[in-house]
Amino acid sequence: MSDNHKPKVLVAEDERDIRELIGFTLRFAGLDVTLTKNGVEAVEQAPVLKPDLIMLDVRMPKMTGYEACRTLKDNPDTCQIPIVILSAKGQEGEIQEGIESGADHYIVKPFAPDDLTRRVREILRGAGALEE
Q1: 19-47: pLDDT as tens digits
Q2: Beta carbons within 8 Å of 6's beta carbon, 6+ residues apart
Q3: Is residue 14 within 8 Å of 60, Cβ to Cβ?
Q4: 65, exposed or middle or buried, with CB in 10 Å at 0-12, 13-18, 19+?
């Protein structure tokens, strides 16, 4: 995969260690990754970056992942971008709230780096942003 065809992933995660782990893992997998600290930053950067995938932590300051997801899905410039909600909670109600906010996928933390890479690649392939 050449640099100019690397799929772009925008990640919003307020916990620095987790944010850096996600960034390292996805960059190692050959993806172009932009990291943000909260939902407000993600909502501001998404229309400019035009990422192939957005990953949002649920519990963040300023704007939750659910709020950011709804805002991104309401914006004509970002509504078609697949969104993954990241949460330490895997209860059915949390997953349902993520889907109702417009999320396309839900990943429960903690996750193994290999599992994260596999899921992200599957999502990008399904969106046509990554070749087999």
Answers
A1: 999 999 999 999 999 999 999 999 999 99
A2: 30, 31, 32
A3: yes
A4: buried
Query: pLDDT tens digits, residue range 54-74?
Result: 999 998 999 999 999 999 999
Sheet holding 8-12, edge to edge: 32-36, 8-12, 53-57, 83-87, 105-108
Query: Could you tell me the two tokens for 60?
Result: 């963040």
Cβ(36)–Cβ(42) below 8 Å:
yes
Which CATH architecture group holds 3-124?
A: 3-Layer(aba) Sandwich (3.40)
Which of 56, 74, 78 has the alpha carbon at shortest distance from 65?
Answer: 56
* Beta strands in the chain, from DSSP E residues, in sequence order: 8-12, 32-36, 53-57, 83-87, 105-108
- The mean predicted confidence, pLDDT, of the chain is 92
- 85 is written with which tokens? 């909600």
1 pLDDT exceeds 60?
no
